[in-house]
Design a protein that fits this description.
This protein has four helices and no strands. The chain is mostly helical. It has one domain. Helix 2 runs antiparallel to helix 3. The radius of gyration is 37 Å and the shape is rod-shaped. 1% of the residues are buried.
């Protein structure tokens, strides 16, 4: 492509000519300093790119772990509450029979069972929830399911 020359304009032939025109003659030390800065910039870019990639991989891994844990917990709750549903159904059927027969002792036993099941959390036997909260807050904690 031919350069269009404007009357009175200086059109340099090389980038070096632009730099020299702006700052004066370049020395070998200036060139070496520029090369050093270029190499350092490339190294920093490489290191930062590697860090960003590691963070992307870490994020994907953690999201996958969270989703896997979520599915396990969801399945657990589905089974536990289905179990509880069956238990409560039996308790209320038994309560109906006790009410129909007027059996006060049976009514007390059934209601006691309902209250006891209602008091127990599905996670109550797994440990202290405060310890679980602390473990969740600790980034070094590894959960295995």
């Amino acid at each position: 492509m031919a350069e269009k020359k404007t009357p009175g304009a200086i059109v340099p032939a090389k980038v070096k000519d632009v730099v020299v025109a702006a700052v004066g003659e370049l020395s070998a030390a200036d060139a070496m300093a520029a090369l050093t800065k270029l190499v350092e910039a490339v190294k920093v870019h490489e290191v930062e790119s590697t860090k960003r990639e590691k963070l992307r991989v870490y994020e994907k891994t953690e999201v996958a772990r969270i989703n896997a844990s979520k599915e396990v917990l969801k399945d657990y709750f589905d089974r536990v509450f289905a179990e509880r549903d069956a238990t409560y159904t039996k308790f209320f059927e038994s309560l109906d029979v006790a009410l129909q027969s007027g059996d006060v002792a049976a009514m007390q036993t059934v209601v006691g069972g309902i209250v006891e099941v209602a008091r127990q959390s599905p996670l109550a036997n797994l440990g202290n929830l405060a310890e679980l909260r602390a473990a969740l807050d600790d980034p070094n904690t590894v959960f295995e399911f």
